[in-house]
Amino acid sequence: QVQLQESGPDLVKPSQTLSLTCTVSGGSITTNNYYWNWIRQPPGQGLEYMGYISYSGSSDYSPSLKSRTSISRDTSKNQFTLQLSSVTPEDTAVYYCARFNGVGMLYDYWGQGTQVTVSS
């Protein structure tokens, strides 16, 4: 059973960089055909794709967030990390990490989500 767990601060000040880590257990982040995603949900809104890092280490970002987003990984710890720079209160959201299965073409495992608030 694959499990994903987000960790990081729940409060970030405007203009700072938000950093969250997803720790994966029950499966390796280097296994072929899996893509490791960050997705967020602002209050009262739908889910928003932010980006992924793939099993091979390649990455993709949402065009609307690309200039502020970086996703990296630590294969020795089986973790991947989101960094979102220059945050504003509009970045307040529940942040999820999730695995996309490139064979089944679906998000098959999700973390429980972590609330991040941007406020001074």
Could you walk me through the main structural features you see in this protein, from its secondary elements to its overall organization?
The chain has 120 residues and is an all-beta fold. It is built from no helices and eleven strands. The strands form two sheets. Strands 2, 4, 5, 6, 9, 10 and 11 form a seven-stranded mixed β-sheet that branches. A hairpin with a 6-residue loop joins strand 4 (34-41) and strand 5 (48-54). The chain is globular. The model has no long low-confidence stretch (mean pLDDT 97).
- What structural class do helix, strand and pairing data support? mainly beta
What is the strand tally?
11
Number of helices: 0
* Secondary-structure element string: EEEEEEEEEEE
What percentage of amino acids are in beta strands? over 45%
Which word captures the global form? globular
Radius of gyration: 14 Å
Low confidence ranges: none
Distance between the termini: 39 Å
Mean pLDDT: 97
What's this, in brief?
The protein has no helices and 11 strands. The chain has 120 residues and is an all-beta fold.
Sequence-ordered SSE layout with sheet pairings:
Elements lengths: L2 E5 L3 E2 L5 E8 L8 E8 L6 E7 L4 E3 L7 E6 L4 E6 L8 E9 L4 E5 L3 E5 L2
Parallel strand pairs: 2-11
Antiparallel strand pairs: 1-3, 3-8, 4-5, 4-9, 5-6, 7-8, 9-10, 9-11
Salient structural properties:
four-stranded antiparallel sheet, mainly beta, 11 strands
